[in-house]
Amino acid sequence: MTSRDSMVVPFFDYPHVYLSHRTELLALIDDVCSRGAFIQQKELAEFEDSLVRYTGARFAVGVANGTDAIVMALIAGGISRGDEVIFASHTFVATAAGIHHAGGIPVPADCRKDHMIDPSSVERMITPRTRAIMPTQLNGRVADMDALREICDKHSLLLFEDGAQGLGATYKGKHSGTFGVAGTISFYPAKNLGSFGDAGAVLTSEQSVYDRLLLLRDHGRGSDGLIKQWGFNSRLDNLQAAILDFKLQRYDSEVARRREIAQMYQAKLGSVGQLQLPPAPGSDPNHFDVFQNYEIECEDRDRLRSYLSENGVGTLIQWGGRAVHQFPDLGFKVSLPYTERMFQRCLMLPMNTSLTDEQVDYVCEKVREFYDAN
Ligand SMILES: *Cc1c(COP(=O)(O)O)cnc(C)c1O
Asked: Ligand 1: which atom is nearest the Cα of residue 68?
């Protein structure tokens, strides 16, 4: 029994992704590899079917990673050279890079108190060259899709979603990734549904977008073997697909555990005046959040972070502490007040299914201790 004073709570426990189901996974890996079923075999098709059933999208296309998913979703959905695409600057650079590599021009917008894209900021960024909006379904929450849909309809814009962090999150009962032309998912190991390497997927309900995605991910090659257009090598490995399908069958209980942890943070930290917590699970009936991350805002952030670190608690500041428009070498010249203030204050507390109740209690105790003493 470790004493409370020496408890260690890593921010994320990578081996846990594998070790929690080691025996079953080894059997599964042995089965797939013994059959030599490495590229575009039945496990990929089965996983895509499972994603369709789980999300309610008409089609799912497994691809090599969540960044390629963005590039190919935008190309397949009709983005072409010079099209401006508005995205939330509080996102991974991959969202903007995806727009860039699809030929578009990434236009950053501000976020709001729940850290999701702010529809009023989106409206201010619209120009005659705007072609699409691509919110990031950040931290396992879906943005205000009614407001974004209204803006898209009013200005004849396409809607895409970077749903890298959103698998299973819903807004008014509709799944992340199913609101627009296409939505993406990342299965990076630290994502809610993590593979043992890189993997991603695109969801769409449009037949023509689906058909183009199948070509794009496999060198532009049709089922007859003929090359129909320039494509990529961005297939989802069959072995990763098998692993992901196995894990997707157990996903609901993982999400339930994340929501339970969020509820514990809410109960123990909700009354700390120096903190602003994410919306509690169930606090807004329109949202079902899956807590990919637990991102708070807090006073005296850097000192709190050091204090937690000294006490064995790992935390993380998302994207290395900057929004996309704050990397000077990318050349953005815009100021986004909420996002910029937030990056002085944001911090992610441990949120993953390897955490025990005792560890969550300990994190809360240390946070309270810091503010009590300061
Ligand atoms: C992880 C992530 C990506 C990129 O996914 P990869 O699979 O690592 O390429 C894109 N956008 C967001 C918001 C992410 O969190």
From this structure: 9
Distance of CA 70 to CAs 51, 67, 233, 344, Å?
17, 5, 14, 28
Instruction: Determine whether the shortest distance from the Cβ of 236 to ligand 1 is under 6 A.
Output: no
Cα 12 from Cα 348, distance rounded (Å) = 11
Judge contact between 117 and 137, C-beta under 8 A: no
To the nearest whole percent, how much of the chain has pLDDT over 70? 99
**Interior angle at CA 186, CA 182 and CA 187, nearest 5:** 140
pTM: 0.97
Q: What is the pLDDT of residue 306?
A: 98
- Residue 5's pLDDT is 66
CA distance 311 to 127: 49
Q: How far is CA 27 from the centre of its chain?
A: 29
pLDDT digit string (tens) for 318-332?
A: 999 999 999 999 999
Out of 71, 100, 165, mutate this one to test ligand 1's pocket (max ligand atoms within 8 Å of CB): namely 165
Residues 80-91 have pLDDT tens digits of 999 999 999 999
Q: What is the DSSP string of 59-107?
A: EEEEES-HHHHHHHHHHHTT--TT-EEEEESSS-HHHHHHHHHTT-EEE
Is the C-alpha dihedral spanning 206, 208, 212, 215 positive or negative? Answer: positive
The amino acid occupying position 190 is A
Task: Give me the phi and psi of 107, to 5 degrees please.
Answer: -120, 110
How far apart CA 123 and CA 119 sit, in angstroms, is 6
Per the DSSP assignment, residues forming a β-bridge with 66 are: none
Give me ligand 1 centre to Cα 66, in Å: 5
pLDDT for the residue numbered 30? 98
Any idea how long the chain is? 374
